[in-house]
Amino acid sequence: MSSVIIQVYGAIQRLKQDLKNLHSFALELSRDFQHQCKNSLYQVLTAVQRIQLQNEAMHTFQTKAFDLEQSLQEVNERYQQEKQKRKILHNSLVELRGNIRVHCRIRPLLPFDTASGHSVSQDRHRKLSEEVAHATDDETVLVKCNRPGHTLINKTFQFDRVYSAAESQDTVFADVLPLLTSLLDGYNVCIMAYGQTGSGKTYTMLGPQSEDDVTLSIEDEPELGIIPRATEEVFRIISEKPPGSHWVEVSVVEVYNNEIFDLLAKDSCGRVFGVKRDVVTTKEGKSDVPLLTYETVENAVEFLQLVDKGLQLRAQHPTLVHAHSSRSHLVVTLTITTKAVSADSFAPLWTDEQSSPRLSKELFCTFPQQMKDDKLIFPSRASSPAQFESTEKLKHIKTKLQLVDLAGSECVGMSGVTGVALRETSFINRSLSALSDVLGAIAEQRSHIPYRNSKLTHLLQDSIGDYFFCLLCNNIELHFF
Ligand SMILES: Nc1ncnc2c1ncn2[C@@H]1O[C@H](COP(=O)(O)OP(=O)(O)OP(=O)(O)O)[C@@H](O)[C@H]1O
Asked: What are the record keywords, sorted (predicted)?
């Protein structure tokens, strides 16, 4: 019996020991578990805290981004408003100076003016070697009219600006520059050189002409004229606009004996040859030359190469005064197409109040019919930019820059021309006279402007109607007095 009790007691002791072991194992387990839970909880809490911090940072960032976006929008709106104001001010300034402006350039006395090769009389030799016209200030030219059998008369003529013989191509171009900004603002612009044969029209518009290759930039040839300089400037302005928003097409024509010749038309071998074209008025009242060749150009170099090709075909004949006289009017047209990004991207620049007739400008007209000291009023017309003629539906707006090197005017009686040359001279003088009529009609604000009286004025109709800038070139002789 006692051995049974002992066995039971032993079993109870072992069970106790097992229970004790189990208990301490359970304790250990629970301690581990608690520790792990604590760790996980800590990690979860840290992660939550991090997320909270990130959320806060995100929120701050979002608020800042929103603020920045708003101020960017405000700045952008202010920039657009300032841009509109700049356009208004710029174009008002251009208008205040006059939609039609006539500047006079006197060219220096050159060696060939007195060269013995000239078949001129002794009397003319004497007159040629003395300066008969000079600038008395930057708006006045004094001309000594000293004709055989007449008493010497000094006449003064006033222009918007007079350039003396010493003034550079740079100075002349500086006055043209603001018009190019207007061009990109949606106005058509016409810049032309008018004057007697040999007076420096081609030099002013293109630069010195050589038999060699065309000069391709102002760095290579500082004497470059208005045409290459204006093109460089147009491409410079375009480079500041969004890529692909503007493109430029070029046409080169000459008006010879009242006929229009396309100087960029190519034959089947790709060679350029002058093809006769006609000018018509479209149903929108614009001038257009059907089938005229337009070449797209990407930069001023490409443009000059094209113009150079066209120039090879231009009619030239020697006159008594000038061995390489251009006998045709050269019209280089840059058509700039602007992609309108939105309906209001070409919002009107003028309010009604602003478009009311502004300053009238007094000019002495310098064209043959008005040379007899007539004082004409050239009002500043409140012309609308070309874009206004487009409806909102249109996606593209076209503006034209027409650069014109007119044929030399000659006094038929004094130049001694005969035959073909006489015919050329008579056509040249008739078209210049038609140009004078058009400008007179615009100046007097007549309801009918006789653009169609000559192919030259018909061709230039759109640009003369907006901004017209004429450079009256003078050499030492002024035959038309
Ligand atoms: N401001 C100037 N400075 C230096 N040379 C000039 C200037 N103006 C003109 N010349 C030179 O005078 C000559 C005649 O000039 P240009 O060919 O430009 O005359 P034009 O008016 O175009 O003549 P035409 O009507 O007969 O073609 C050229 O040799 C030209 O280089």
From this structure: ATP-binding, Coiled coil, Cytoplasm, Cytoskeleton, Motor protein, Nucleotide-binding
pLDDT in tens, 335-378: 999 887 554 444 433 333 333 332 233 223 333 333 333 333 33
Give yes or no for a contact between 479 and 196, defined as CB atoms under 8 angstroms apart. yes
Query: CA-based angle 385:383:227, to the nearest 5?
Result: 65
Q: Which long-range contacts (CB under 8 A, 24 or more apart) does 448-455 make?
A: 451/287, 452/281, 454/258, 454/430, 455/255, 455/258, 455/259, 455/260, 455/279, 455/431
Instruction: Please give all residues whose beta carbon lies within 6 A of any atom in ligand 1, as ranges.
Output: 107-108, 110, 195, 197-203, 208, 319, 322, 325-326, 407-408, 473
- Two tokens at 205? 């518009």
Instruction: State whether residue 211 is helix, strand or coil.
Output: coil
Sequence ranges of the domains in the chain: 1-83, 98-474
Q: For domain 98-474, which architecture applies? A: 3-Layer(aba) Sandwich (3.40)
CA dist 23 → 15, 16, 27 (Å): 12, 10, 6
Residue where the block lists tokens 């939609």: 99
